Every structure is written in structure tokens, then in C-alpha cells.
Amino acid sequence: GRQSPGCGWRCRRCVSLCGVAALAIDSCARRMAPATTTTTARVGCAVRARRSGAGTGCSGRQAGCPRVARARHAARPLAALPAEIAALVPTDLPSLGQVELGAAALPFAGLFALTFTGAFKKSKNLQDVFSRLITIVSQGYFQPNTGGDSIPEAEGEMSDLVGDEPLFKALYNMFLDSGGVFRLSFGPKCFIVVSDPLAVRHILRDNAYNFDKGVLAEILKPIMGKGLIPADLETWKVRRKAVIPGFHKAYLDCMVDLFARCTERTVEKMEGVCEQENRTLDMETEFLNVALDIIGLGIFNYDFGSVNKESPVIKSVYGVLKEAEHRSTTYIPYWNLPLADVFVPRQREFKKDIGIINDVLDELILVAQQTQQEEDMEALQNRDYKNVKDPSLLRFLVDMRGEDSTAKQLRDDLMTMLIAGHETTGAVLTWALHCLVQNPDEMALVTEEIDRVLGDRRPTFEDIKEMKRVRMVIAESLRLYPQPPILIRRALGDDTLPGGIGGDPDGYSIGKGTDLFISVWNLHRSPQIWKDADEFRPSRFDEAIDPIGPWGGYDGKNSGLYPNESAYNFAYLPFGGGPRKCLGDQFALMEAVIALAMMLRRFKFSTKAGFEPGMKTGATIHTANGLFMDISRRELEGTEDVQGVKQMVAK
User: Fold this and answer.
1) pTM of the predicted model as reported, rounded to 2 decimal places
2) Which of 129, 317, 457, 507 has the least C-beta neighbours within 10 A?
3) Same structural domain for residues 352 and 475?
4) Distance between CA atoms of 404 and 397, rounded to whole angstroms?
5) How many domains is the chain built from?
6) Beta-ladder partners of 489
């Protein structure tokens, strides 16, 4: 189980002969001293109960299962192999020459054939069979030795992961069967899926600097460069320190008026639709458009005007957004191949789109730098943002004394905020409206609150505080449809994850290079934590949750203006958590509350009988079929007729 100083191969490479179980052998076939390689076969251990048939309930501490068996290089038992396969494999391999090694390999061909046969019997789907075979061949050769041998392994097929259902829904079923921390292998990749709040808190907060964005950074680097999401830790620390002061109170107060002005564009468009015979509108598209206009004006002082027009820039923005989603759900990064952007039509289009957006951002950055008014941070935060010509975050970053960001770094930051901010807000508004239309009683409570608080005027920051039920609707929508549903991390060094609720009290060891999926979807719908987990019930955020084992529970009265990860002990992650939590969470929540309130104040929404929006995922959770709503004007208290509504909108 341990590597000898004189051995050039890891033990795992010598002994990992199949994906069913590795072999416990007494000596390595590559010059390893027998005295240093003795292991204890975990006979009877049921950590892999489903595969070995040895029973259930083992936590890795049964007799004959030493603690070292849970370590990174621990061997796995010969006894766990099916008897007909185990009989083919010798239990002791002395130091061998090349000829002897070739002869010794002959039984392994039979082992491979038997494994293939077993795989095919288990699943007639050839995709699943070959995925399992690739996993078997990869272990110990192409995959990093990521340890975690005591972690339960989920039973799943490749078709579960790349079928019609979104990935996060397949992971949810595995979570119910395998618990809060489990291993999942498909094709040449192995992931640890984490759905336990204590393990998540360890990764995101307690030991956050031992994890980076891993696969996600590799996917997004061509799009966002060294922006805040994909940046390495050192770059991220510098950029976070520069950007976070820009989301100060004076800026957010000013943004409330901007949110309202941008939403009024959509309201005017909807007024026009109400005059038509066909009063159906895809509200998902409308929410995405208003979110894009807000990000453009609020972050870098550019008016996309996407509610009422379509330009080459808008087309390019949506092209890049779709490519980001495509890359996040494609397992083979073919776009990294040489000349892919020349011969692959999709990549040619992406290259053109990213070029158009970069040109616009470069021009905006240049104009801001040419009109720089350098001040220290305190002076910037005390500006009269409601009366300045350009209150954008870009202006703040350019004018901040001592902030020597290059144009390239500013562009990466702006691109990151454009994609992340636009996607999240558009998605949460879509699902919030869908849930309200499906729950008329909740809709009635929300509209009563909006009418009482807003009347016939634009919302203010104080109104957001008063619209508690609207805030809870947004929070509940983010619980049921988290944006994104999965967070991705990679271990930078060896670590031990907490066992969490119902897991191994000694935790689970993982090795450097381990890729982890943090399933926010599973956390937010865990039946262990949430009562009526699949129901839309915004009032739950006023209720306490009792502690469960080592998890400390939650008292809804201590949550503040919005529910957050700290109050919920990391069982609720609407914007991540720890040092790398989303910086724009308050911006996004305020934007969503104002946009939803203004639209519900003026219109009634309904769907045709039998219509289902469906669900698909990329960077966030989208509908599969749009959110088509029939809209009509509400009878507003204090307005006598339709003309009164139009005058209110114009004002």
C-alpha cells in the first residue's frame, strides 16, 4: 500500500487491474521491497457493498480494515472481486523480467474479457458499457491518484449523466441512495460529489484556499480570461480587493433607480402587447433582456437597449453566453484542439462574437481611462451617484487611486460580471414567476404586499425592506432552482472532508487533484434538512430548523434582509459561500425584487392549460420551452382607466 523509495511506479498503477476492486498483493512487480509493501486485505469490508456483496453499513472501521486502508494509497480487497475473476489473479507477484511480465499479463486479458461481459450484462446500453471500460482502464493510468477509497461509490450509468434529464437531477437520485459525499466515475473522469452542508462549509469556507475552480476555470478561461470566477487564487485575491469596494451603499442606492428605469422599458413593451389580440409573451426572454440592460448600464455604462432592439453586439453577447453553457455541459473539450476555431463552425462563430464584445469593452475602458478623475476610495464612495453622469462600476475601478489594472484585466472582470450577472437574474425571475403562477394563493399574498407598499410610484431602497414577502419569493425560487445548480472545485493538496450528517465520523480523505462537484440542488432539496423540500413555500424562511447531528440548524429570525449561507450553516447557498462568494449578491437580489414587483403591480399572468416550461441546464437552470405567459392589465387601485396606467408608466 505504500510506495517504496526505489520504485518508480505508484502502487495503484501496479495493482489497479479493474474498476470493480483493486487487488491487495504482497509485493510490487516493479522492484518494491516486500518489507514496505505489506497490506491488509479488507476482507468483509462493505464500503463498496453493492459491488462486493459483503453486506451494508460498513464505515471503513470493521475488523481487518486498518485505518491506513482509508488513506490515499490504500489497496482494496481481493475478496471484493467476483470469485470467477479473483481466481484468475495471482496473489503474489515477485520481481519479474520483461518476458515474465508478459506471461503474467495473460490472465489479465481474461479478466478484461470477464469485466466486459459483466458490464454488458449489467447494461445493454453500449454507451454505458464503453464508459465503464474507459473508467476501468483509466484508473491508475490516466486519472490522478485522488484517494478517497473509503468514500461510498454511487451506482450510475453514463446514460444517466448525458441523457435527456439535466445532470443535477441525476446526481440528486444518487444522493438519496449514496449520501452526502460519494464518488462518481464516468468515462475517464472521477468526481467526488458533495451534498452535505458540513463538507461544503469545509470546502468553501474553512479550508477555502486549498481549492480552486478546476475544470470550471479550464472551461471559462478562453471566455473570461482571469476574471473573478475562473482566476487562480493569487489573481483572485488582488481582483477581489479591487472590485468589492465598488458595491458600496451609495452605489447600490443609485442602482435602485436604474433597476426601475430599465424595468419600465419592459413594462411599456408589455402594455403594447396587451393592446394586441395575441397577448402571449415569452417572459424568460423579457427577463433576460432587462437583466442585460441593467448589467450594461450599471457595470460598464453601456446601453444595450435589448428590450426594444437587436444589434450585432446583443447577438454576440447571447452567442458567447450560449457557448459558455455549451462548454460547461460538454465532457470533451474539443475547442482546445489546434485550428478548432478555423474548421469548427460553432467555434468560428464564437471567435467572431468574443471579438465583437472585446472591441466594445476595450472602447469603453479607453474612454473611461481618458476621462479619469483619480480619487481615493473614501471620496469615491461619497460621490453623489444619483447626479453623476456615469455611476458605473467601471468608472469606480478606473478612478480609484492606486488601482493600476491593465485594460486586459478590466475587460476580463467586466466580461465575468456580464455573463454571471445576466444569467443569474434572468433565471431567478423566470422561475419566481413560474412558481407564483402555479401557486395562486402565494401570488395573491405577494400582489397585496406590492400594492400596499408601492402604490403608483417607482420603488426605492426603503421599499425593498418593506416587501418582505417578495424577498422571500426570490429566496425560495433560488432554493428550488439554484443558479448555478453545481459548484466545481479542485483540491490543491491532500485534505480530509468532514463526514457530515450520517457520514463517517472520521471523515473522507481526498488527494491533491481531486475534482469535486458541490451539488447546490441536492443541498436545497435535501429531505433531511427541508420540510416539504420540493414544495414552493416562501414562508419557510420565517421558520426555525432544528439541529441534525453535527449540523447546527437554523433560526429564520436571525437571517437579516435576505437568507444567506451563514445563517443556514451552508445548507442554503444562493450565491455560494466563503471567500469566493459572489460579490454581486446584493446587486442581484435588489434587481430581482424591483423587477418582479413592478411587473406584478401592473399585470396578471397565466399559462395555457397543459403548458410545461421544461428544464435544461448550462451555466444556470433555464426552461427548455420558454416561459410563455398570457398577460393582461390589472385593475390598479388609484387609477381610473387604462390611460391612467399609461400615464403612470410614462412618469
Assistant:
1) 0.77
2) 457
3) yes
4) 9
5) 2
6) 516
Q: What is the CATH number of the domain that holds 627?
A: 1.10.630.10
Residues 142, 38, single domain; the answer is yes
Q: Using one digit for the tens of pLDDT, what is the confidence trace for 79-95?
A: 333 443 344 344 444 44
Whether cis (ω within 30° of 0) applies to the bond prior to 484 is yes
DSSP state of 457: S
529 and 386 together in one domain: yes
Q: Calculate the alpha carbon distances from 64 to 42, 58, 89, 113 in Å.
A: 6, 12, 22, 31
**DSSP label of 205:** I
* Cell numbers that stand for 118 in this block: 459483466
> Of 295, 300, 248, which is closest to residue 407 (Cα–Cα)?
300
> Taking the mean position of all CA atoms in its chain, how far away is CA 317?
21
The per-residue pLDDT for range 352-363, each reduced to its tens digit, is: 999 999 998 999
| Residue 368: how many other CB atoms lie within 10 Å | 21
Cα dihedral 101/107/112/113 (nearest 10) = 140
> Taking a C-beta distance cutoff of 8 angstroms, is the pair 293, 261 a contact?
no
Residue 441: count of CB within 10 angstroms of its CB: 8
Q: Which three cell numbers stand for residue 269?
A: 413593451
* Residue 618 falls inside a structural domain: yes
Judge whether 430 and 623 are in contact, CB under 8 Å: yes
**Alpha carbon 24 to chain centroid, angstroms:** 38
Q: What cell does 312 get?
A: 450585432
Q: Would you say residue 39 lies in a domain?
A: yes
Report the amino acid identity of residue 366: L
| Number of residues assigned to the chain | 651
Residue 456 pLDDT exceeds 90:
no
- Cell numbers given for 254: 443609485
Which residue segment(s) compose the domain that 459 sits in? Answer: 233-650
Does 45 carry a binding-site annotation? no
Q: Where is the domain boundary, 152, 185, 203?
A: 152
Handedness of CA 225, 228, 231, 237 (dihedral sign): positive
SS3 readout for 2-13: CCCCCCCCCHHH
Beta strand 486-491 with 495-497: parallel, antiparallel or unpaired?
Answer: unpaired
Rounded CA-CA distance 504/480 in Å is 28
Give per-residue pLDDT as tens, 234-284: 999 999 999 999 999 899 999 999 999 999 999 999 999 999 988 999 999
Cell 439554484: give the residue: 482
Question: Given a cut of 90, is residue 375 above it in pLDDT?
Answer: no
